[in-house]
Amino acid sequence: MSTSLLGPAEIRALAERAGVRPTKTLGQNFVLDAGTVRKIVRQADVGPGERVVEVGPGLGSLTLGLLEADADVVAVEIDPVLARLLPGTVAEHVPGLTAAQADDVDGSPVVVLRDADGRDRLTVVLRDALEVRELPGKPPVALVANLPYNVSVPVLLTFLERFDSLERALVMVQAEVADRLAAPPGSRTYGVPSAKAAWYTHARRTATVGRSVFWPVPNVDSALVRLDRREPPSTTAAREEVFAVVDAAFAQRRKMLRPALASLAGSADAAQAALVAAGVDPQARGERLDIEAFARIAEHLASPAGAGPGGPGTVEP
Q1: How far apart are CA 260 and CA 251, in angstroms?
Q2: For S-adenosyl-L-methionine, which residues are the binding ones (predicted)?
Q3: C or N: which end of the chain has fewer Cβ atoms within 10 Å?
Q4: Is the dihedral of CA 178, 143, 71, 93 positive or negative?
């Protein structure tokens, strides 16, 4: 089954016919370049028959690239105009697909395109990605997406938390965000996104993406980040407790851990006792600690489960 990808002229014509104008509010920047689409799919190691979730499919450039690799795509789209447009675009470019009956999922409208063999090749869910708690069909094994800049880290961390079937992710994000996600302890860009991503995955930046491949052209560079699922640190502390420690440690950058954790621990003395018990220098700064160290600290803090902000999408200012 052959699949044709979208070109620049077709993307603009498609948007014009549908009355679509990319908005900064939704962080919409559509990929015009088929070579970039295929690079994303290739670096994600997408294989035939794999079920892939795509957040923010937009006009369908990456969706078609994933289908070209013979993956089955679950596309989560917040924009109702784009969500309605996508099945028609895919049907025009992937021969042999027909609309199939689909039930709503958690109150969200769902559209399915199925092939002659009964495979659900495209499933479109109209929903805010941050509100998605279940997906139709088989659990996805990969997240592949050109994530909207304004919610990229919260979306990524939320999906890693809620869908443990995800073995890997390949996301295109703002270059600065890519650096933070992949940063090791002690580096200039290491912070809350780095530590929280490390709870779930090994992350690495794989490529820089030029501005000219987007429409409209953004005023920042983009990059690809590959994240491969790992076991979280072995700890008796809950993830929420560990993330609360991470948030507190980075609430004021370059602040020593003893005062930074005082509020979470109940006092500076209690923070110091927990740090010493965890084998961490109370005068160290959060920028030096890996996620295993944050987990040890959480174990020794006398705080109720889930204290502090600690949510999956909380990021540093």
Answers
A1: 8
A2: 29, 31, 56, 77, 128, 146
A3: C
A4: negative
Query: What confidence category does residue 24 fall into, taking pLDDT thresholds of 50, 70 and 90?
Result: low
Per-chain mean pLDDT for the chain: 90
What residues are designated binding site?
A: 29, 31, 56, 77, 128, 146
Of 222, 220, 224, the residue nearest 207 (C-alpha): 224
Q: At 125, which helix (H) or strand (E)?
A: strand 120-126
Q: Say how far apart CA 110 and CA 175 lie, in whole Å.
A: 33
Query: How many CB atoms lie under 10 A from the CB of residue 88?
Result: 15
C-alpha span between 98 and 238 (Å, rounded): 45
Q: What is the maximum span of the chain, computed from C-alpha positions, in angstroms?
A: 68
Whole-prediction pTM value? 0.90
Per-residue DSSP letters for 204-260? EEEEEE-GGGEESPPSS-EEEEEEEE-PPP--SS-HHHHHHHHHHHHSSTT-BHHHH
Region label for 49, one of left (φ > 0), alpha (ψ between -120 and 50) or beta (otherwise): left
Residue ranges at the known binding site for S-adenosyl-L-methionine: 29, 31, 56, 77, 128, 146
Render pLDDT for 51-83 as a digit per residue (tens, 0 to 9): 999 999 999 999 999 999 999 999 999 999 999
Residue 17's pLDDT is 81
CATH numbers and ranges of domains, the chain? 8-229 (3.40.50.150), 239-300 (1.10.8.100)
- Three-state secondary structure call for residue 33: coil
Asked if the model's pLDDT at residue 243 lies above 70, the reply is yes
